Amino acid sequence: MTSRLRHPLAAVVASVALTLPWVASWASGVSLGFGPTTVVGVSGLAVLGASFLLAWGAETAEKDVPRAFAIAVLAVLAVAPEYAVDALYAWQAATDPSKANLAVANMTGANRILIGLGWSGIALFSIYKATTGSRADTSVVDNDGRLRDAVKLDPDISTEILFLFLATVFAFFVPLNGGIDAIDTIVLVGLYVTYIAIIIRGDVEEVEDQIGVPAYFQATARRIRVPVVLALFVYSGFLIFTAVEPFAHGLEDLGLQFGIPEFFMIQWIAPLASESPELVITAYLVNKARSTAAFNALISSKLNQWTLLIGTLSVVYSLSLGAYGVLPFDFKQAAEIWLTAAQSFFAIAILVNFRISVREAVTLLVLFLSQVIFEFALIRIYPEAIAEQYSIYLLLSYTAIYLMLGAGLLFARRRSLRRLGKLTVANIRGTPMPEPDRAD
Predict the structure, then answer these.
(1) Under DSSP, is residue 353 helix (H, G, I), strand (E, B) or coil?
(2) How far apart are CA 4 and CA 339, in angstroms?
(3) Helices in 133-221 by DSSP H: which ranges?
(4) What is the pTM of this model?
């Protein structure tokens, strides 16, 4: 009996079992009558189960497709609910212009969560697991001094980092057009399509030694393995698409019961819920001593949200409007975009040498949390109009801090930035990687 419970398929059955209450309630329509607490519980379990199924599908797929492409598919499915929420607000903005601000707020909140909590949290968790776990993680570098310990990333991720850098530079100009328009769509969606076209041409790498469910499925014949991967992707994608939005709204309702303002919930709590599959998946990968794969997934998620998500908002808005239109937003949301781009700029400056230290991860985390806490304090202390004005000053101040830190770091690591471009070219051409510059 014990051996059966340890069989990899037992883990798959257990994960599917977590999702069944939600599937049954969703299919029957019973979930529409659930209270917020029940919705959060049932849909949250479904999201958890779907996250494991999606991670196993992506790891199994690495045997048949380039790893970067498998992770890109994982990233798109994991953040699909964020697209759904933002698309809803962009669609409603055609008849209610105030919804456009909510679309931008939700998008910027999701992007900053991915870096502020995701990148920093996974780095700290990876280092913690390497020092206390039973499996050695070769990605974790033990340096002199606890704050200098770092997670070392695979240079193969240079393509993702470079495209994220290009999208980040362009994002600073998005608010200057008075909204998200066709130029933004062409440039940002074009960047992502180009990125996918590059990585799908890559070779299928030798699969790392797997354990558990991925090892079991990878050992099966290809005629069995491919349908299994597709089934895992489709089922987990269905669950994430149907369960995360109710999960987010349930959390919003619970927050409102405790007096948390609606706008704050839409910008922070709803995106945190919609990003939960991605965070669960990366924590799972770190737990398997696959820190590089975890970071690959987070960076890929950031890239597709920072390109596709922004770029498609004007398309949805125009479809709802029945004519071409520019998705408008106010100056506060322009400041939110600048802050999000500045945070991304600083985070890229950290990763340009393919490592992130404890000190750098803590800096990302503290800057993110302090800004959110200060903004929450403002909206609780001051009337709405005054709080909004102070919030703009706060956003611009943090934008300046991120930009100064990022510029200083990029200047110090300018040789690494040049190497990043050379690595990307080498990845595209399939030529040998250039050696790292010791000075960086």
Answers:
(1) coil
(2) 51
(3) 158-171, 182-199, 212-218
(4) 0.82
